[in-house]
Amino acid sequence: MPRRRKKFPCGHQGYGQVCHYCAQLIQAKALEVAEREQARLARQEWEATFAKDVVDLQGLPKWVVLKARQVIAELLAGADYRQFKGKRLNHDRRIISIPLSYDYRLICYDTGDRIEPRSVLSHEAYNVKKPLA
Ligand SMILES: [Zn+2]
Predict the structure, then answer these.
(1) Ion ligand 1, residue ranges at CB < 5 A
(2) pLDDT of residue 125
(3) Are strands 87-88 and 95-99 parallel, antiparallel or unpaired?
(4) Which homologous superfamily does the CATH classification assign to the domain defined by 54-128?
């Protein structure tokens, strides 16, 4: 005996106990909610990582943040800034500018016995105001 299409309370027509169209919608919706929640957690986790930075890296593109952290970690471990193509500024030799990319510079300050990472500046910000480390 052929199955009969029936009309579900939602208004759709189909076969079986539940409306497959609506079941699919509900599943897609649940997936969307789960994905959004996952994204929210990932964002929260990412924001929490900034608390451990010695330099404020919030608001920078993610890859710049990661690059900065890598360079900072190596500097704090004793690496030479010249290894990262860092240069001392002419107007203040205690300030060292290390390129992270074409657009971003890590600004460090030479206290005399160590190199302290101070800030990350975009190329524009860097050119407008000379960094005061
Ligand atoms: Zn339905």
Answers:
(1) 10, 12, 19, 21-22
(2) 72
(3) antiparallel
(4) RelE-like (3.30.2310.20)
